[in-house]
Write a structure and sequence with these properties.
- The complex is a heterodimer of chains A (464) and B (464).
- By secondary structure, chain A is mainly alpha-helical.
- Chain A has a domain at 327-462.
- In chain A, 52% of the residues lie in helices and 5% in strands.
- Chain A has 23 helices and six strands.
- In chain A, helix 3 crosses helix 15 (301-310), helix 4 crosses helix 17 and helix 10 (174-183) packs across helix 11.
- Chain A is globular.
- In chain A, 54% of the residues are buried.
- Chain B is an alpha/beta fold and 464 residues long.
- Classes of the chains: A mainly alpha (464), B alpha/beta (464).
- The interface between A and B is large, with 75 and 68 residues.
Amino acid sequence: MPETLSRADAAHLLRRTGFGGSEGEITALTGVTRQAAVAAAMGFTSSDPIPEGPDVGVPGLVNNESQWEAQSDAIAWWIQRMADLSNPTTVPGSPPAVAGDLPIYEKLTLFWHEHFSCAQDKVFDFPEMWDQIRMFRRMAMGNFDALVRATALHPAMLVFLDNQTNVASGIQENFARELMELYTCGVGNFDEADVVAMARAWTGHNTVGWTGSRWDATYVYRSDQHDHDPKTLFGMTANWNGVIVDGGERDTIDELVNGVKQVATARFIARKLFRYFVHLDPSNSTVNALGDVFIAGGMDIAPLVRAILEHDDFWGSEARYGLVKGPVEFVATMIRRAGFSASDMGLRWSMEPMGQTLFDPPSVAGWGQGEYWLGTVSAWARGGFSRGQRWRSQEAGHLASLDDSDDDAAAAQAIFDLFGLEDVSSNTRNAVERWHRRTYDNARWSTVPQGFLVGAVCPEFQVY
Amino acid sequence: MRALIHPTRRLVRPTEADIALAQLSTRADTEGIARRRFLQGALATGGALGMMPSVFDSIAAASAPLGASDRVLVTVFLNGGNDHLNTLIPADDGAYHAARGGLAVAVDGSHSVGQGLYMHPNLSRLKARFDSGQVALIEGVGEANDDHSHFTSTATWFAGVPAVPNPTGWLGRYGDGMGLDGLGMVHIGWGGIPMLLKGNQVSAVGLPPNGNLFGADRSENWERYAIEAVSDFGDGSTGGPWGDAVGASFRDAVDTAQQIQPAYTEGLAEGGLQRELGLAAEVINLNLGTRIVSVSLGGFDNHDGQRPDHDDLLAELDAGIDQFFSTLSPAFAGRTGMMIFSEFGRRVEANNSAGTDHGTAGTMMFISSRAEGGHHAQQPSLTDLDWRGDMHHHVDFRSVYATLLDEWLDADSHEVLGANYSSLGIIGSGGNLFFDVPGDAYYTTAVSWLAASGITTGTGARTS
């Protein structure tokens, strides 16, 4: 008998593959098998060909003359999209109107943005940053080799990690190092001699550069700037090239993803995706097994994601509320629940104190998880942000009953419903009821806006 | 700060001068009447227990002022790998100019700090501080296992021990030994607490640079009720470790907000390191038991177009250091020191992008009126390089930590670092509070003592 989803299971899956489920989405997944529920969240079954994610095109805002405006508008646009997308409300087997228009694609796009962590702050070419995000969305579930390859040669990366200036006469190690350490096999699986060999292999993979009228970051291979001498990489002496250009060369990405570093790479990515979807502490045996799934699937990403979501650990107790929402998840979920318009909220400004400005990760390693989002700085910022939204909530008509009735339990439940909180502890419930009692008695007019604030900052809304 | 009583004018009353001069023969370390005992034998120098969040003791409970002789350490982390060769410049060495070409910084005799080294012209105020004997330079510091990775190097420098899973920071373990809960350790910046300040039992409190802390304003009852609900959330359990950790951090934030808010004075600089270090000084001035403060300045990973970016960063560093010491109250000036470090240096030879790749060996600094100013090691050779073209370090970075632990922070360095390191002699026994009072003048100690005793306070906190 395959396991079927309880209502709590369904809500858990929808929190992890999107930004929280509505009543209709939860109901639709309740009672179906894990396999069918995961297939619904991913938009296809294991026997379907792996679909490309949607290409959302280039909104006019991305080409704003001001880089700053373009980035600000794109942050609001992307978070609004996260908040708006829904899972199917009839299950099984109802693909969305646009194939791939499912929230899990935004979750994965965000994951790849964090993984291949390029920053507008350095790239300073917002259309290219946006183009990279579109590429991540299209390739989110596709083949990992293809994704690494496309990312390596994308203008945003060529500029961000300086391979545009890596030439035979003067090597530049920045990209070569991170290609191994952060993007594929991880630290401990290469040494310093490999960094030099890798950098030499990547010489000549540059950008067009100055055209006489503008900087052109389009990828170009300059054979005369490539080091054609043999190089010893991972102990193998060969005519290594970053990516193969001529016959007789060996391809570094192929070696990292499908060759001698395949096991290390598969485990490195499996561990990271597990930590993103499940909890922060997978056992080595789980990681190794998931790495085997990744390899068996030809390094396609979709089978790995499916294996993670179907894994017993995903449905176990350690996973439940075992992740802390990052600011993007916190804000997107709030907007989704309250029906706010992201473009009115000044998110570029208001999310910076929370520690997450999209398109500008703080380092080449992206943002952190878990404890990274704990602490007083985060708490003050989320409190301040939520306080700033309370009148917006009142204007939208939320929680209007709170100043009509002295029923504290009903008031608390209305707040938890607004935020989609399924499992609220008695401590939090008691505290909210006590808050309503005091406020109703002494400052009744403020119950409506303050009710929003109390819900937004309660601990249950910060975890998922 | 500048001395209120200009020594050459002889405005000090004879009786005070007599008392002051009597201090010349008083050993500084006999003042320690309120020194806290460092807990012996309780510290594991290894890693933390696991991925579960650490719920530390409530921070609001503990805000006991410092003992009269308790010292304070401020750490400034130059994030990205500082180009030490363009900070403390070996300009007399032809090898420097040969390797750096256009990246070489032009200096003259006015920048000389002796031993053929010159401070970057943008560090003019630090240079003046050096001239007054308040800056200890430790050249050629590094780590034996430097793999040139930002992440492993940063982890190593933060941990102060060889790589272990889930490491704690050396200052975090110091905090464990001292029982530095509450505001004993403070990190200023966006984002999470660096591992540097995470122990097994205690962790730092994070402060955002901007201020306007959620929970500080409780003047209206209707605001106060909601804030008190946040405290209630954190006092109980949500039923899960992450929810509990979030609840505790929100509670700590609102419970501490009123205490900390006064540190955000009108006089703080608008932004940047100058604001953060000004805030650091104001936090210390509040005397809430803070012994460790950390800040970081990012942007030092100058792989391309290093100039003028790096020059600008040094100007920001110079302004920040100056802001700190000019904001610091005289009551703390004689017992506060600042350590400046980075995860690694840069390669001797410039790369092809008008920048420098990751390298080794750099200069650490300790700045204090109680520092033993001057040079404490030798600049490594620029021609005797390893196979990568990197300098050989000759001072283990942990010997700097050990010296500070044993001689500045009243701790046992072996307990914290798990090994013994020899003292570098960077701590002096004398005191010189005033930026414009030469370190070797006959009246220096007397004036410092007057300030420490509160008889004079200088011409004001921000007039230097």
